User: What shape does this take?
Amino acid sequence: MNDWIDIGTLADIPQRGARTVQLGGGEKEIAVFRTGDDRLFALVNECPHKKGPLSQGIVHGHNVACPLHNWTIALQTGQAQGADTGCTPTIAVKQENDRILIARPVALSDAA
Ligand code: FES
Assistant: This one.
């Protein structure tokens, strides 16, 4: 069962933008993306290529272009697109009323 964490409201993230969340406890930084059609996706904020900060990339459709070398990463799966290979872990995200909730990424957490 997921432990949901409230990270703010939809208005906190611009369309085709992202915000980052640091959960603490040694967990990796999470990037939460809002697409042009108001879908939400959350990924570990590291490109599968050389760990570029995906939150600073350009969102187009349901993809983000990495700011470092322009790989395209699918927001839904974290998979690199085209000829590139690699995958960034995804995190479950949902919206309840105007609040955004992300699942504590158990697989990435330190055992506590
Ligand atoms: S680090 Fe993202 S494309 Fe190279």
Summary: The beta strands are 4-9, 17-21, 30-34, 40-44, 58-60, 63-65, 72-74, 90-91, 93-96, 99-103.
